[in-house]
Amino acid sequence: MNVIDACWRAKLNWVSNRRALADCAVGFGKNTSEGKNGRIYIVTSSSDDPTDPKLGTLRYGVIQTAPLWIVFAKDMVIMLKNEIIMNSYKWGGALYLYYFKDDSRYSM
Asked: Which domain of life is it from (predicted)?
């Protein structure tokens, strides 16, 4: 088990207490705290509209100024129309970003 899972998943109620994950952070984010007590925002749609982000999309969640935990309703692939800039104080679930250019994929 990795360091984070050993800290978080060792607790019997880890599934229902996702906020405990914040106490297990390592590296650069270890001492962050502002987003820890934010409300939960659920991404329910894989659509993306950079000019008018809709409630339920990832882009809508990341531009909010309030602290948020961003979680996903299900596994999804989100094809962004352009870059996405995340405001401060956001905690999230597993999020993998890829940049596609000339049929090559770069992980970010």
From this structure: Eukaryota
